[in-house]
Amino acid sequence: MSRKFGVGVVGAGAIFPSHLQAYKYLSKRFRIVGISDTDELRLRQAGQKHFLPVSTTDYRELLARPDIDIIDICTPPGVHARIVKDALQAGKHVISEKPLAPTLAEVDDLIEFAKQYPGKLSTIFQRRYATDVEKLMRLKDDESLGQLVGGTFNRTARGAFVQNAKNWGSWKMSGGGTVMTQFVHELDLMCLVYGEPATVTATMDTVHLDIESEDTFAATIRFKSGAIVSCSSSTGVGKSGVMFDVVGTKKVHRYASKSDDDGGGSGLARLQTLATKVVTKGGDKIKQKLGRPTKQKGDGGSHRPYFEAILKALDMEQPLPIGPESARHAVELATGIYTSAITGESVAFPLDASATYYSGVTAEDYRSRARTTESAQNLTAISGRQAG
Ligand SMILES: NC(=O)c1ccc[n+]([C@@H]2O[C@H](COP(=O)([O-])OP(=O)(O)OC[C@H]3O[C@@H](n4cnc5c(N)ncnc54)[C@H](O)[C@@H]3O)[C@@H](O)[C@H]2O)c1
Fold first, then answer.
1. In a shared domain, residues 93 and 133
2. Is the domain of 115 the same as that of 147?
3. Pocket-forming residues, ligand 1, beta carbon under 6 Å
4. 180 Cβ contact list (under 8 Å, min separation 6)
5. At 271, is the pLDDT very low, low, confident or very high (cuts 50, 70, 90)?
6. Statement to judge: residues 135 and 114 lie in one domain
7. Distance between CA atoms of 280 and 287, rounded to whole angstroms?
8. 288 in a domain, yes or no?
9. Structural domain count, the chain
10. pLDDT tens-digit readout, 372-388
11. Which residue's CA is the nearest one to ligand 1's atom 15?
């Protein structure tokens, strides 16, 4: 029989329910032994609601338990590194939410540290395992798309999501706004699809949210392969969604996510979802009456395929997927976007320890960009008056 792995989760905030959903679906293979959060109210609510055996404000209590094999980090990015190191040192497998850390310097430090614990650290980029992305990678790998020449990637996020998260948009805790915390999924995907980036030019601003970092950005990335990709994202807007076009010489692969506002997608897709719900509910009621076990509702959510990949690696005693080197690409690309948007210059990759924002962007750095934007606006006004 397959082994069951004990899990300790650190951080009971906004993303925790998605992890819980996947663990519940895979309950034959995972058992959440304990949860830790420094916020006592959140901790109590999570522990009691989900009947978790151990609740603690000090995550080190989880590290000391022999019945915990995996530490699952769901804290803000600014505190990932300390917990990753402590957990690896305690002999645990570690899965950490994205981005691995908010700065390139911290990511590189973790890459070095994790070399002592090969294959035990993974970053949660669950989008890599989504059906649409797997399909895209198949089309790319079997060359159905032809040579990739360009593309467009876009993400939007609803207002409520952002307002509920405490550290959202903090340079220190989150590493920035929409680029580092949300669009980082698409940056990761772009590196998978197009390979190494060559240059980026970008612009960003805090157009409407009350946060210290950017809520909107747009950029053009040139990859070493020659492909030119445009991308943008905005947060705190009317609807959440992701869309992309990957443009090849033979085919263009187009993807648009279902909206989370209207329950989803085309009329047909919505009917199918509704039909599945009705059938599942009806079937479960009959099974309950007959005293038979009901199947776990739903499909385990967006994180489930990633957790299955973790299980596969553990079962086969192989390195966990998405190790720290692999997780670095998206943080490097995000840092390049920030550098270009602040300096107004095109930025060349790769970025190493000599890069201007290697240790991250500060609120002061960002304000200096605001002055550049202001002077650009003044220049436009002046040239407009001159033309008039
Ligand atoms: N993969 C995805 O699709 C996805 C989506 C949203 C968020 N995330 C990531 O998940 C992580 C958490 O984001 P969130 O939105 O849930 O944040 P959040 O602020 O809602 O929750 C974070 C929780 O961590 C707790 N915490 C902070 N420091 C701690 C410590 N030292 N020990 C224990 N608990 C601590 C906080 O009290 C809080 O309850 C981030 O890395 C974020 O980027 C991933």
1. no
2. no
3. 10-15, 36-39, 42, 59, 74-77, 79, 97-98, 124, 126, 165-167, 181
4. 77, 99, 102, 174, 331, 334, 338
5. very low
6. no
7. 10
8. no
9. 2
10. 555 555 555 545 545 54
11. 14
As a whole number of angstroms, the distance between CA 203 and CA 41 comes to: 39
Instruction: Using the predicted structure, report yes or no on whether residue 367 has a pLDDT greater than 80.
Output: yes
- CA of 85 relative to ligand 1 center, distance in Å: 17
Are 172 and 78 contacting, i.e. CB atoms less than 8 angstroms apart? yes
Distance 99 CA to ligand 1 centre (A): 11
Confidence of residue 153 (pLDDT cuts 50, 70, 90): very high
Segment 108-118 shows an average pLDDT of: 98
Closest C-alpha residue for ligand 1 atom 39? 13
**Residue 101's CATH number:** 3.40.50.720
Say whether pLDDT at 203 is over 60.
Answer: yes
Residues 52-66 have a mean pLDDT of 97
Q: At what angle do helices 324-343 and 104-114 cross, to 10 degrees?
A: 170
**pLDDT higher than threshold 60 for residue 273:** no
| Greatest pairwise CA separation for the chain in angstroms | 83
